[in-house]
Specification:
Blueprint (H helix, E strand, L loop, with lengths): L6 E3 L6 H13 L16 H12 L11 E8 L2 E9 L4 H7 L2 E5 L8 H15 L5 E6 L3 H9 L3 E8 L4 E8 L3
Antiparallel strand pairs: 1-2, 2-3, 3-4, 5-7, 6-7
The structure holds coenzyme A.
Coenzyme A binds next to strand 4, helix 4 and helix 5.
Length: 176
């Protein structure tokens, strides 16, 4: 049952154990780290938070990366999902990655969290003046496609990604 106290927050030290629990579940389930900040080393947790803050300001970005913000969805004091918002598109993101990536803790799936997380991240994008917003997913990721469609995503096209050996759906969300 989703708590009414659900909130979208910037990464912070307060939820350290819960966040580590989320990443650990991805590892145990042998799941790819989506969105990519889940790959970050969290041994020095404060340092990880500092790096994420820097990335949002466009500092120390990895080669080929644009400034990006990471958000945690917290329900009942637990981090249940993570989103990453790219502040602009580059050639690669325009083709495949889009503005927003997200992932839900495996044990917290099918409860509506991704739909709430994407809605909240769209609001953040709007605050940053990002409009329209591109969100992509693999065609066979039925859950993700539903999440995008429930957030008013309009399918633009489907492209083959040689890198993923998959068909990628590209959706635009207009925030008015
Ligand atoms: C895709 C993902 C984000 C969905 O998260 P979630 O919190 O389970 O999604 P929601 O609960 O908001 O469900 C959205 C819809 O998808 C459906 N759904 C969820 N999991 C599903 C599954 N495995 N198969 C089919 N439908 C599924 C839900 O029933 C719901 O549909 P409904 O509104 O018709 O009931 C989650 O499975 C995940 O983190 N996957 C790994 C990372 C990933 O693929 N990220 C997206 C990259 S584009």
């Amino acid at each position: 049952m989703i708590d009414t106290n659900i909130k979208l927050i910037h990464p912070c030290i307060e939820y350290k154990n819960s966040y580590i629990g989320l990443v650990t579940e991805f590892v145990i389930n042998n799941e790819p780290f989506i969105p990519f900040p889940l790959k970050m080393d969290f041994k020095d947790f404060a340092q990880m938070i500092k790096k994420l803050k820097g990335y949002a300001r466009g500092e120390n970005l990895m080669p080929g990366f644009v400034p990006h913000s990471t958000y945690w969805l917290v329900d009942n004091k637990e981090v249940v999902a993570v989103a990453n918002l790219r502040h602009r598109l580059n050639e690669h993101l325009l083709k495949e990655g889009g503005h927003i990536g997200y992932g839900v803790k495996p044990s917290s799936r099918k409860k509506g969290y991704a739909t709430i997380l994407l809605a909240g991240t769209i609001k953040k994008a709007k605050e940053k003046g990002i409009n329209p917003i591109l969100v992509t997913c693999e065609k066979d990721n039925i859950a993700s496609a539903k999440v995008i469609q429930k957030n008013n995503g309009i399918l633009d096209d489907e492209i083959f990604s040689p890198a993923h050996n998959e068909i990628i759906q590209r959706y635009w969300i207009h925030t008015g």
